[in-house]
Amino acid sequence: MLNQPPFLLSVYDYTGNWARPYIDAGWRVLLWDQHFEGSILEGFGRLVSLVEEENEGRVDGLLAAPPCTAFAASGARWWQYKDSPGSAEPPWESFTEQMVGLTLIVWEMVVRFRPRFWALENPVGRIEKLCPELKPFRRMSFNPCDYGDPYIKKTILWGDFNPNLPRNPVRPVEGSKMHRLPAGRRRSELRSVTPSGFARAFYKANHDLSINFASGRQLELFAS
Length: 224
What we know:
By secondary structure, the protein is an alpha/beta fold. It contains nine helices and six strands. It has a single domain (about 5-215), classed as Rossmann fold (3-Layer(aba) Sandwich).
């Protein structure tokens, strides 16, 4: 659309932290998170309609942070239960299968919306094993302390984007603070918060649309 600011779609972004620098810079941003909009699997048609209404079915950037509760190595002790039949509501056979579905729907977004850049993040774990489609797109890993937040939580990014983020390393004086969070639903929500320093660095490296971020390989691979 002529004379319109760029358009960003950010999914599984409960706090909006990852998208915040784009919002502050005047981008048009559509956030979707199950806490507010409901399941993206059930509401995918509505999401497509919203993108069509807002930007004629196209997005300039796509950010995705799918739930890590079935993937993160920190929760490996519960994998057996999450993999077991009956651990999720029908039509899913298991909780893990449902989480894989939430991850794989990102491929559909990439093919349908053809973003100029896209990125998917998850902590260290087994997501690549369960979603092998990710492997060709692994681009970088980081800890929050690399970008100004003084704690560690090793996170991996897949996608087609500029990985040359400006670093702002600080001492991780808070250590692995995620392990000290209290148990319960609130713990999962807090663990999923995108570090603000990383979000700013990602924006700085991935906002100038005159740069050709994408290699073009994603459409070829996803269509095969």
